[in-house]
Request: fold
Amino acid sequence: MNSLLLKGLHLVPMTEDAPAGGGDLASHILDASLRIQEGKIKDIGDLSPLPGEEVRSFGGLYAFPGFVQTHVHLCQTLFRGLAEDRPLLPWLREKIWPLEAEHSPKTLRQSTRIAVDELLRGGCTTFQSMETVWHTSAVFEELLDHPVRAILGNALMDDASVPGLPKGFARDSQDSLAECEQLIRSFHGREDRLFFAYNPRFVLSCTEGLLREVGQRAKAEGLRIHTHASEHPGEARAIRARYGKDNLALLRDLGLLGPRTTLAHCVQVGEEEEKILQDSGASVAHCPSTNLKLGSGIAPIVGFRKRGIRVGLGADGAPCNNRLDPLTECRQAALLAQFQAGPGALSAYEATRMLTIEGAASIGLDKVCGSLEPGKSADLVLMDLCGEELGKGDPFTRLVYSASREQIRHVLFRGEFVQL
Ligand SMILES: [Zn+2]
Reply:
C-alpha cells in the first residue's frame, strides 16, 4: 500500500466542531505530521515513518484543506475581458448568451482546461459549476483528465420569450431534461469525484413548468439544484412583475428550495426572504467580486450566517470577475462584511471557514473534503505564510488579508501532488 508521511507542517484542520467565532485561534493549528494512504488522510499526530513509507518534510509551511468554490462557470473562461461595464441583464443579453451560443465541444474543453488550471493554482480542489445549455458532456469528459472534484450540470433555459436570446439558445425543456438524464447516466458519481446537479439558470430564463419539473426530479433522484437567485435589482423587479411574488418565495413554492439547493448571489434578499432561506436549509454561494463588478450590490452574508444559513464562496465566471481565485473572493468577502456590518463582523477565521469546511458543507461534500481529519480526502494547500510582507498576525489573518496565491507552494488532490 502506498503511504506518504508529510512532516514539518503547521496543520490548519478547519474541522466542523471547531468553536464558533474562532475561540483561541492558536488551538486551531497543529504542529503535527499527516499520513496519507489510498488518497485519504489516514492519521494526524506525532507519527513515525512506517517501513517503506515515503516521507516528505516541509520547513514550517501551513497546510490548509483544499479550497472550495461553490459557484463558477467553466464554460465562460474564454470570455474574460469581453463583457465589461454592464449590469446583469444587458451583460447576459448582449455578451454572455451570444458568446455561449458559439461554444462547440472543442471550445468547451479548452475553456475547462484554462479554468481548472487557474482554480488549482489558487488552491481550489473542489468546486460547483454551471455550464451552458449544450455539450456539457465535453466538460465532464475534460474534467476526467484533471485532479479536481466537481459538481456541475447543463444550464437549463427554455423560455424563448426572453428578449435577446440567440437563436436556439432557449432549448426545448424535454430535450434539456433528456440531456440531464444522459449526463447523470454517464457521469454522476464518476470516479467518486464528478457529480451532476440540476442548473436552471435563473427564474427569468425558465418556464414555470420546467422549474417545477426540476424540483420534482431533483427530489425524486436525491440530486442537487444549483441556480442564480436575487442577484440584481432589475432581475428581482422582473420576477415580481411576472409572478407577483419575490424570487425566493417563488422558488420555494415551485419546490426548488431545500438543503440540497445552492443559490448563487442572494444580494436582493429582504427580511422575509431571509426567513424563507433559513427555513429551507438552502445554501448561498457568495460571489462578492462579481456582485461589485456588475453593480449588483453586497449580499448580507453576516445576517445569513447568524441565522445558520450556510455560505460558500464563488468567483462566478471569468467575464464578471475577472479572476477565478478563491483567495481573492475570501478577502473580498471579509472586507465587504466589515464595511457592511462593522469591523469584526466576519473574522478572518470565519472567512477561512467559508473557503473550506463551510463551503464543502454548503454543497453537500463535507463528509468528503473541506477539513483535515482522518477519513477525508487528502486535498491540501501548502502555503508559506512566514514572509515579513505577510506580517505577524495569526495565520487566518495572514491568509485572508495578506496572502495571495503567490504563497502557495504545493497543492495535493487525493494525496497526489498537483503539477501547478
Ligand atoms: Zn454565475
User: Anything to note?
Assistant: The longest strand covers residues 54-65.
